Structure formats: C-alpha cells, structure tokens
Amino acid sequence: MTIPVIFLMGPTASGKTALSLELARALDGEIISVDSALVYRGMDIGTAKPSPEERADIPHHLIDILDPSESFSTGQFLSRTHALIDDIQGRGKQPILTGGTMLYFRALSEGLAQLPEACAALRAELERDMAALGSVTMHQKLARIDPEAANRIHPHDPQRIQRALEVYQLTGVPLTDLQRQAQQQQPPWPLRKLILAPSDRAVLHQRIALRFEAMLKKGLIEEVEQLKARGDLSPKNPSIRCVGYRQVWEHLEGAYDYPTLVERGIIATRQLAKRQLTWLRKETAAVWLDGEQTDIAASVLRHLQN
Question: How many H helices and E strands in the chain?
Fold first, then answer.
C-alpha cells in the first residue's frame, strides 16, 4: 500500500514547524518544505528556517537550494517534490509536506496549468509600466481583463500582477481561463490534509508581532545588510520581496525609521497570514486543528491512525 502524503498547512506563525518535527519523529518521516522563501541560502532569520540542529535530527528537503539571486517557479517545485516523495516513500519513510506557500500545495493536489514561457521584452515593458504607474493601477488594469485573477492577487503583489498581465498579452486568454481549462491531475498518492491555525485570530496576530520582533533582535537587519552589501540584489528579486526582507531593505534605504519598520513588518506579515487563510478556507477534505490545543501532536496521530 502506498504511504499517504501528509500536507501540514497553515498561516505563518501558527506552529507548523514544531508540529511537523513531532510528527516526523513519531512517524519515521522526512520533511519537504513547501515554502518559496526557505529555498534561499543566507536567508535564515526572516524565514524562520528550521535550525541546523532540527535539520540534523530530521531530514529536510528543499531548503537552502538556491542563491537569493535566483528564481524558483511552481513548475520547478512540482518536479522536485514529486521526485522527493517517490524517493521518501520508496525508502519506507513518511513524507510530510509543510510550509506557507499555498500555491505550491494547490499545484500538488490539483495540477498546474501549462502557461507560456516568460518573454524578456514584454516583462521589461511591464516592469517599466509598474514603476511608472504603480501596482494599484496595474492591478486595476488586470481587473478589467481578468476579474477573478485580480480578486485572488493582492494590489501590492507586483510580481503576480505582472505575470497575469504577461500571460494575457502573450496568449490573448485570461490567466483564470487557462487555469480553468487545465486538465485536473489527480495526485498519484493518497493525501492527508491538515490545517493548523489558532481559533482566535487575535492569538495569531500576537504570535506574528512577537515573532517579528524576535527576528529583529536575533539579527534580521544584519542579515539583510549582508544581502544588500552583495550589490547584485534588489527588491526586484523574489527573495528580497519576501515578507520582512522587503521592509528591512526599505528601512536600510532610509524609507522609514525603526519603529515604522516594526509596524510595517508586522502589518505585512498579518496580510500574508490573511491571504493564506483565504486560500486554506477553500481546501477540501482537510482537517482543521486548533493551534491552541494542548498535546496537538497526539491528537493528529490518533486522527491519522483512524
């Protein structure tokens, strides 16, 4: 019988890392990171990356695989993850996938639309438009041609706005239509979906604030200073657009003072959590877990056994 694949999903700061480690120890499992930020080397504090000790205790995959100057597509994630799952199952181990990039989870469970390759000239034109007009105006443009995509994409998410506009200009078909037309691919292994989230939103907000402040005390500003000192990175890179890193980068550029940095970092993280929860509410056949529950790992193990 094929070993089921466990999806441990949830908003940022919900406690997924700690629970994934407990489950991996109990189930003889290995962890695959489902996070578009953890792939980057040298970005440890702001991504809340598992510690070297935790990674030595339990095998982790798709962490520290790219330089911050590189990009990582959903298609690349899928191909690597399918190969990793096959390998882990083949060795009789339990695959546990955890992280906060909801698009990756959705692509694994529902398949991925075949989209056109990026066009350098068109992308440069869209970047110029974005710089001149701003992401809100470009988002309004997207809303006129693809209202559903605009509803899914935040007005301050320039990368995804540009990609949706690029797909439309290359194909003449809205991104949403292409995704709808894509053949739904059933995953080749049984899934067990778990969603970890505090039942009280105020608890999550408090966790987010405490964690961001702890990151700053741990050296997040110094971490971003090292990235900035390289000279080959900017907010155009997906790595620097990650929540927390962009705000610190702007602080180092003199855009605002330290108290404002703290405020903006917390707000941006809350907005990320809100977007993640919006995705998660659309998940089907998933078991919701209250992150405030005591001995939650034991409860999850009982559920999985049943």
Answer: 14, 6
* One-letter identity of residue 129: D
Question: 193-224: per-residue pLDDT in tens?
Answer: 999 999 899 999 999 999 999 999 999 999 99
Among 240, 271, 276, 272, residue whose Cα is nearest residue 104: 276
Q: Which of 301, 295, 291, 107 is nearest to 195 (CA)?
A: 291
Decide if pLDDT at 3 tops 80. Answer: yes
**Do the Cβ atoms of 31 and 219 come closer than 8 Å?**
no
- How many Cα neighbours within 13 Å face the side chain of 42? 18
CA distances 95 to 125, 161, 165, Å, are 42, 33, 36
**Three-point CA angle 210, 216, 218, nearest 5°:** 100
Show the tokens assigned to 82: 């399918």
